[in-house]
């Protein structure tokens, strides 16, 4: 994956609070160095998964922490405009200026991915009954406070509907490769970001309200929500070049994205955790399902083809 060297990056869409360390975090314990998670982390992950299950990170955290699988509780449906970030933006504003920076610096790559994803959805939803409005991405390290509650880095990337922000500790991508065997690569990382912004689109349009109490199972509302977000990520990828931020996405990039989708399927996570695969506990979809819907989005480039709510062929 290559970004357009001349693209101008907009770091105002990023709230970088990594320089605050763990001071912005909550009460959850941290994983013990070289060992398993502390009891505080286990209890925290259980709570967080109920709050944040609508995202890739919730599944990863739960898979690592004894596979406590639950789903997202969308605590706040207010459709207020997300506030502009104010903390720490200078940290990346001076280093992430153009697409050339995105091609060489991991932080800037995520900035470019956020810019491109939001540019696509702003255009795709223009003129609709539910026009797109921007949501900032928060870079944090260690722990963070959100409108959905406090979270630790173990949660991974997530979208909080309460404050309509995407949160990510960039160390997650190392974890994805180290603990789950993902190939990695720039597109795998941008797929994760596009998936979380898919949840923001769902919140704007109102798809997240369809989940109701149907929180687990192979055809549950939670699974449908996650697979649709995967499909939306694929749709963005198909249209990414047209946003002006992305220069090329190759077939090899798509393979990296499909690999990332496969390692975070419910069945793969259960197997990795040494658990029996139990579809009744699915909250995000199987590896095959996640790959299929990402492919559907990329192949069609049409968000209307991402209707996971009116099909039995998940």
The share of residues in helices is 40-55%
How are helices and strands ordered from N to C? EEHHHHHEEEEEHHHEHHH
Number of strands: 8
Bin the strand percentage.
5-15%
Number of helices: 11
Shape: globular
Largest beta-sheet characterization: 4 strands, mixed
Average pLDDT number: 81
Report the span from N to C terminus.
29 Å
Uncertain spans, ≥5 residues at pLDDT below 50?
23-53, 59-89
Which quaternary structure do these chains form?
single chain
* Structural category: alpha/beta
User: Radius of gyration from the CA trace?
Assistant: 18 Å
Provide the domain count: 1
Largest beta sheet: what is the strand line-up?
2-3-7-6
Draw up the topology in text:
Elements: E1 2-3, E2 14-16, H1 39-52, H2 56-64, H3 90-93, H4 99-102, H5 106-124, E3 137-139, E4 143-146, E5 149-152, E6 158-160, E7 165-168, H6 172-180, H7 186-205, H8 221-239, E8 246-248, H9 251-263, H10 266-272, H11 287-300
Parallel strand pairs: 2-3, 3-7
Antiparallel strand pairs: 1-8, 4-5, 6-7
Helix pairs in contact: 1-2, 2-10, 5-7, 7-8, 7-9, 8-11, 9-11
């Amino acid at each position: 994956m290559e970004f357009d060297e001349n693209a101008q990056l907009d770091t105002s869409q990023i709230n970088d609070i990594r320089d605050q360390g763990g001071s912005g975090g909550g009460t959850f314990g941290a994983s013990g160095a070289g060992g398993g998670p502390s009891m505080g982390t286990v209890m925290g992950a259980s709570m967080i998964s109920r709050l944040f299950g609508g995202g890739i990170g919730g599944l990863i955290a739960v898979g690592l922490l004894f596979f406590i699988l639950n789903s997202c509780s969308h605590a706040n449906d207010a459709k207020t405009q997300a506030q502009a970030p104010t903390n720490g933006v200078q940290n990346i504003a001076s280093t992430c200026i153009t697409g050339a920076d995105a091609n060489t610096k991991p932080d800037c790559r995520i900035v470019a991915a956020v810019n491109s994803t939001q540019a696509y959805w702003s255009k795709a939803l223009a003129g609709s009954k539910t026009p797109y409005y921007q949501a900032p991405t928060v870079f944090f390290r260690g722990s963070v406070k959100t409108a959905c509650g406090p979270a630790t880095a173990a949660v991974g990337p997530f979208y909080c509907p309460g404050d309509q922000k995407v949160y990510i500790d960039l160390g997650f991508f190392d974890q994805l490769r180290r603990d789950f065997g993902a190939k990695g690569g720039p597109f795998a990382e941008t797929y994760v970001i596009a998936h979380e912004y898919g949840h923001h689109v769902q919140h704007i349009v109102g798809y997240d309200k369809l989940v109701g109490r149907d929180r687990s199972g192979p055809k549950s509302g939670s699974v449908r929500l996650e697979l649709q977000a995967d499909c939306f990520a694929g749709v963005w990828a198909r249209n990414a070049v047209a946003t002006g931020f992305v220069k090329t996405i190759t077939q090899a990039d798509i393979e990296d994205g499909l690999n990332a989708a496969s390692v975070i399927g419910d069945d793969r996570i259960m197997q990795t955790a040494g658990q029996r695969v139990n579809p009744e506990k699915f909250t995000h979809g199987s590896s095959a399902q996640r790959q299929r819907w990402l492919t559907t989005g990329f192949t069609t480039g049409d968000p209307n083809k991402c209707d996971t709510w009116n099909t039995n062929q998940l």
